[in-house]
Design a protein that fits this description.
- There is one protein chain.
- The protein has about 55 residues and is mainly α.
- The chain is built from 2 helices and no strands.
């Protein structure tokens, strides 16, 4: 399996969300969750979610 992570794309998410007042950790979780959700091999047919606990 090839990694779909991109430092450039992650930086775009960070800039967009941090400017909107979202924490860096949450912005990265959004980026990663979108990568996972975009891969049919990782998506559950009956739904599901990605949970994060930020401290």
């Amino acid at each position: 399996m090839d990694s779909q992570c991109s430092d450039r794309d992650a930086a775009i998410y960070l800039n967009r969300y941090v400017e909107a007042g979202v924490t860096r950790d949450l912005a990265l979780r959004v980026y990663i969750s979108r990568l996972l959700g975009g891969d049919p091999g990782f998506v559950l047919n009956d739904g599901g979610n990605i949970a994060a606990t930020l401290r």
